[in-house]
Specification:
Layout: H1 9-13, H2 17-29, H3 33-46, H4 56-75, H5 87-97, H6 111-130, H7 151-154, H8 161-165, H9 171-181, H10 187-191, E1 198-199, E2 202-206, E3 212-216, H11 219-226, H12 242-255, H13 266-280, H14 283-290, H15 295-299, H16 310-313
Antiparallel strand pairs: 1-2, 2-3
Helix pairs in contact: 2-3, 3-4, 3-6, 4-6, 5-6, 9-11, 13-14
Amino acid sequence: MTLVRQTDALSLASLSDSVLRVRAVEAASLYDAEVLVSLTESYMLNASRKGARTSHKTIQAYSLAVREFVRWARDSGVQLLRPGQRDGGRFVAWLQTRPSQGKGKSGGLSASTVAQYVAGARALYRALRWAGATEAQPFEDAWVAPDPTPGIVKNPPYSAEIDAALPHCEPRLAALLLLCAHAGLRVSEALNVRAGDLSGPQLTVTGKGGKVRRVPLGRRTREALAGLPPARSDGRLFRWTYGQATYRLRKAFEAAGHGAAWRGFHAARKHSGTRLYAATRDFTRVGLFLGHTSVDTTRRYVAVLDHDVAREVEDF
């Protein structure tokens, strides 16, 4: 009997326990990265904590990490189903010394990128255990040193660049920028906004993990959205992909004389968080506005002055 290869994530989840184990063992033995990627995705969508609500972005990041780890394991002579107890640490050390391969980038991988690769490799082994292929946990004692430079320092919020770039944006692009820089939306949330999500001065936003929040919109953002007809038949206001939106906004920054300052959409979201904190002095309220589960996350989105408490300690 010929065993039909089923690499699709949903197909793998529907296999019987014995067949799934055979597929997982075979893929690991052959260093078949694509099947192992599908196995990891199937585990993430069917058995992880977030299950089917796992974001597409997380799936993509973990898929890249699994391919990288499988390639390293094959080239390093590591048996995926029977790794050595130090192999997890060896992979971490290799990542920390590997040069970046991104376009236009130099130097080593950032601590956050290393952590992302290790998280994907850990997910692969959870998937292999889920499939009954192994009980190995090579990353149980493997740790990634945190980056000593805070993200708010490496990628600070925009400041004057927002108002400078807006006159160089056509109306739809200006609305997208304001949704990120004034309403605090993630760019993925902003690109998925539908006309029906608007209700007076508020916007209903579906964020990470399917969480829904109501976001108050400022006057400028309301006015920018008011005259926009849907760009898609499903009511979405934007038809751009992330890459297309990035290209357009980078060109607007260049036209405004701030081309070198372009740091992606995340810096616009930090602009919103920083301005709201300056007005409220309340991380909890800022976190609710940005859709954060933890206030610790919110602190990474707010640029606080070095001597923010100078006046308070003056008379200590």
